[in-house]
Amino acid sequence: MSSPGVDWRPLVDALADELTVSGKLVSPRWQAAFRSTPRHVFVPEYREQDSTGEWRRIAVDSPEAVAAVYRNVALFTDVDARGHGISSSSMPGLMTRMLELLDLHPGHRVLEIGTGTGYNTALLCAALGDANVFSVDVDYTTAARERLDSLGHRPTVVTGDGRDGLAEHAPFDRVLATVAVPQVPPSWLGQLTEGGLVLADLKITASAGNLVLLRKAGDQLEGRFDTGQAYFMRMRHTDAPVAPPDPESLGVAETRTTPWVRPYGWILFPGFCRAWSSVDRSRSGTGSATTPVTGHARPR
């Protein structure tokens, strides 16, 4: 679990103290989960670009490399053939801020969209218990399961399209997306308990949107955008697993739009955002009727 000669606990405690001071790690539940979960187990290596733009593989097998993992920075963990980052371990401070926003309580069942390295999944397991944690991703799930198992965690981790949720394990009290989406898929709404919460990086376009916390009220999701910024890679799908490059990860402006998964309409003006769609309930796991669903979100 640990690199030879490296005591990770002082490193994670120092990072936890930093996040506590900044207000991103507050509650005793998440303090305990964060301080007891070794990040380097889930990031045995990462990628770093040099001054020429070439990616270097950094093996986390030395005291210096282990220490580097316990910084409040995102780490690229996979790069595609084009040289675009396609998977990462998010900033720990962003992870803890999102976990605090979810207002989780004992017994809550959580669906995580985007397993990735498994680190955030491990934090959920440490706080809620393995039986209440469900996670789905199009890739990386085998490695994530092995890392989780090495720490004694055995949540439900499924290889699949996060767009569809996990109907066979629904309902869920919370849906946490660690990927960016242009709209909230109807399946997430359909698999959520009444009054349950969805937290996602809602990016209507590459430059419009942010982290939004939505509560289910009947056939609607409504809530507010968070005041802080969040940048996640776009959700990948089983029918198109390679997502277009993210402008933030490439440092360039987006010049093209991507097609919608389903036709959606949007109204955007200061202080208000609203979406509507005809929803195929057969994908949401709640029946076969086609029913209109609306949702709106107001920035704080």
Short key terms for the protein model shown above:
300 residues, alpha/beta, Rossmann fold, 10-stranded mixed beta sheet, two-stranded antiparallel ribbon, 25% helix, 32% strand, globular
Strand content: 25-35%
DSSP strand count: 14
Contiguous low-pLDDT stretches (5 residues minimum) are 242-300
Helix fraction, binned, reads 25-40%
- Classify the secondary structure makeup into a structural class: alpha/beta
Report strand order across the widest sheet: 7-6-5-8-9-10-11-14-13-12
Shape: globular
What Rg, in angstroms, do the CA atoms define? 19 Å
Q: SSE order in H/E notation?
A: HHHEEHEEHEHEHEEHEEEHEEHE
Supply the CATH class of the domain at 92-299.
Alpha Beta
* CATH level 3 topology of the domain at 92-299: Rossmann fold
- Can you count the helices? 10
What is the typical, i.e. mean, pLDDT?
81
Question: Strand count, sense and closure of the main sheet?
Answer: 10 strands, mixed
CATH homology superfamily of the domain at 92-299: Vaccinia Virus protein VP39
Distance between the termini: 42 Å
The CATH architecture name of the domain at 92-299 reads 3-Layer(aba) Sandwich
Model description:
With 300 residues, the chain is α/β, with parallel strands linked by helices. It has helices at 9-21, 28-35, 39-42, 63-69, 92-101, 119-128, 141-150, 186-190, 247-250, 281-284; strands at 45-49, 55-59, 75-79, 85-89, 110-113, 133-137, 156-159, 172-181, 192-205, 208-217, 220-225, 265-269, 272-280, 290-299. The protein has a domain at 92-299: Vaccinia Virus protein VP39 (Rossmann fold), CATH 3.40.50. It has 10 helices and 14 strands. The strands form 3 sheets. A 10-stranded mixed β-sheet has the order 7-6-5-8-9-10-11-14-13-12. Strands 1-2 form a two-stranded antiparallel ribbon. Helix 2 crosses helix 6. The radius of gyration is 19 Å and the shape is globular. The N and C termini lie far apart (42 Å).
